[in-house]
Amino acid sequence: MATYFLRRLLLGLTTLVVITGFVYGLARNMPGTPLTVQLGETDPSRKINPEDQERLRKIYGLDKSWPVGYAQWLGNLLQGDLGRSISRKQPVTQLIAERIGPSFLISGTSLLLTWLISVPLGLYASARSGRFDERASSLLLYVLYSFPTFVAALFLQIIFAVWLRGTAWELPLFGMSDLPADAPWLARVGDVARHAILPVTCQTYVSLAYDSRFIKANLEEAVRQDYIRTARAKGAGPWRVLVHHAFRNTLIPLVTLLGLSLPALIGGSVIIEQIFTWPGMGRLFFESIRERDYPTIMGLTLMFSVLTLLGQLLADMLYCVVDPRVSLD
Amino acid sequence: MIERPPHPRLSPPPRHAPLLAIKNLVTAFHTPAGRIPAVDGVSLSIERGRTLGIVGESGCGKSVTAMSVLRLVASPGRIEAGEILFSSGGTTLDLATLPEPAMRSVRGGRIGMIFQEPMTSLNPVFTVGDQIAEAVLLHRRVSREAARARALEMLQLVRLADPRQRLDEYPHQLSGGMRQRVMIAMALACDPELVIADEPTTALDVTIQAQILELLSELRARLGTAIVLITHDLGVVAETCDDVAVMYAGRVVEQAPAAELFARPRHPYTIGLLAARPSPGMKHSGPLCTIPGMVPLPQHFPAGCRFHPRCAYARLPGAESGSGRVVPLPAGELPCNAAVPPLHEVAPGHWVRCFHAESLGPPRSAQEIAAGGLFS
Amino acid sequence: MEGSMTPTQPMRSGGFWAEAWRRYRRRPLALAALVFVGWLAVVALFAPAIAGTKPVLCRYKGHLYAPCLAFFDRRLEPAVFARDRFRGTYPQNLKEKDPDSWAIWPLFFQDPYRAVRENEWPGRPANPARDEGHPSASHPFGTDQYGVDVLAKMVHGTTVALLVGFVSMGLAGTIGIVIGALGGYCGGWVDMVTSRFTEIVMCIPTLVLILALTAIIEKPSIWKTMAIIGATGWTGIARLTRGEFLRLRQSEFVMAARAAGAGPVRIMLRHILPNALAPILVPITFGIASAILTESALSFLGFGPPPPSASWGSLLNDARSNYSMWWLVVFPGLAIFLTVLSYNLIGEGLQEATDPRLREARK
Fold first, then answer.
1. Do B58 and C7 lie within an 8 Å CB cutoff?
2. Which pTM was predicted?
3. A143 touches chain C (CB under 8 A)
4. What is the value of ipTM here, to two decimals?
5. Which CATH code is given to the segment(s) A96-291?
């Protein structure tokens, strides 16, 4: 057990160094620097004078070659310092901490909804496999699964924010909240919830379609096994056979899926947050790439990679819990 | 567990009340390629406390018959006709038409089942103890602890080493023979009146096979459970069964007490099977006898007697048909390829599905036939 | 367990793929998807003849030309038209500069890259711009902000949608198969290295990698986008190939080939690969669907190839600046959706047709 974790840790650290080094190299080689991108956008009156520019270049390590800059970043990381965002003038850790909440609000709600709906849906679909209602619902899910999120998001925006404007069904187009910070908290919660409906719907439907199909496929695989016949020969009813015997076995592939959803749970979705201008992690990443904000790019990359590795570890550990044939050693 | 006296093998219970009587059972699979009658008019009866062997080659419908009794035939398959009369506790149930909830209390409760593949027939994610206890909990109103105690008792009964420890082990930690013992423990956990064992030893090593068969015989003697043993191995039947039913192409062609069948087989197919069997007592060291031809596929079952294309005794109207010898058809006799011979009793308890059963029996024994090389 | 399973029918003999095709044909949706993709290919191939402003074929000053080919590549535009100062406007110039000329015009006279001006086609008004451009008889799918016809854009965008799928998955498939095959067949340290490498690449979130790579390239073009999608999308294929090669390496026919003296390359290419192809083809087909999605998502986010290339996703991006122009969402959105759906259906059909386990179950 201990050797297993040690091996995983070493492998994980190597992976992290390779990934962050690679992304740092990529980021530094993007055309333009945060200073030039910013300079191009700000008005001439606020132009940074050459001395200041030079000072800034020094501070952010832009005067050195990228391997040296990377080593510097790594050294700071070891002291727990992710650096300061260039474009936002804030420590990266603080920036990330601010964005985790909104991202988690969307992804967490969506993940919860997905599992709450897709598990019963998968069970229902395999219990009624081949009947008309199951075939119809499976086809619908299949269509949903192929429906691109951003297209759906745009459709929903047009319907709820443009066509239904002025009706009770109108939903906000952008952002997380329209109310000022001093509004009563209940009103603010309601407002955020109204803003979250469309992004959550968009994030949920694709994973819902995917997960319920995944559960159904695995259940159908499981019910073909000999032990299902044994369970029926014991006198177990169809529901018990499906839930207790078959579903318990499909948990084995399901926990892998769950582990893999960890990065998205906290990291959010670039596309959805971008479309709905949701102040989350995905949007932060998207913007930091556009602004060449190296420290933020690196901080987020590190976080995504750590989450991915943790997700894999979590999946492996859960795997051992649900499958007695597998042990960590 | 109450010790019961060994069941007297030589005094069978009254014959008029069979534990299970299958009458004209038809089970067919509806596939895109058409209707495939895997079981086509099977009639069988099993006496209380006895062991019935069902023998036949692959695809003869013996497993489907067994699955039909518990109504576990997989999806495209359906019981289309016939009765499966199960006399239990003073009442007789027709398992072919019994509503599903009532059927569930029969499965595992009154009829236990043991499958061929011990490696895959146990659920990999539950402990052995849980799986046996589940069988108890499904049919008895007892606490979890009592069910667990019963599971332990069953593991002791099937003589699994370290039963207390095995209780909390998972199937993958056991060997094939041990798993089959667990399957037997599970099948017997609710004291069923009948256990159906579908080729319980086929997937096991030869030495383990003998142990499992011995265990089954012993348990039957101790508990008085009737057993249906499905096998393709005549040796197994000879050692363990009281009665034998021989199946061919979806039908029972002969049923008789084991001793009677081995001594005086009446159906040409049975005669052929016995002759094709190597026996240690055989002095003759020549080649083994074989039955010419192949078992027909269900969608190509021949008309009339299904064995006639391979039968040396078949009487056909012309000479053109296969291996049949040209025998002039006596007036009034039906040709083997036109009419289905009925299953009729030729001696007490000895049923045969052949027009010529009377003329074929009874004096010849299997050994004689083998020596004489009736089929070559 | 014999008997309880459906008995086998005598199989008509035929190769593995003939058999798979026979099973594939039994699925009407998968077949319809294949027809749809075939139809898209025809549209992509004949795009300049379907919608365009340049003659498919014309006779000008005694010579035959096919100026419509310029839509595939600017260099294919015959030099004579540039010399004669056509400036891309053919209908009037042809008649003016050579009264004897004749031309075969595209089915739909609209340009995917610019708005058609007033009287460019005799007697036809200029394309409406902004939210004036509702779908109408002359513009079935409407026009965009600048008056460019959406249908013409979409017809020309078909090429991109199809190419993205094939080129990027061709690349991903090649990388994946090579890395997976090496790891699976050689084992040992080679397997160690390739497996670790695959794992590391799997750890980088794909969109992050794609965005970073897209940001670094100097001159974005549709080909570079395809290359990036391909270069990041091979991990699943590599893992699967490795598994298949690992399994088949120990099979009897590979032993036999080795015993017959076949070299490792020959064994990998001639003996193992054809047998491993069916399971590998399935994720490649699904990969085509996701490559199309990725490309349109990138274009939608504004990270796609620059304006002259007409990707369906970039149309959606235009829609974001004016939500009242719903036709900019509906038509390209449906096109992306139908194409992705088709590839998913084809992938699933392929899976069901070639999976031996499923075959057993649904005989």
1. no
2. 0.80
3. yes
4. 0.83
5. 1.10.3720.10
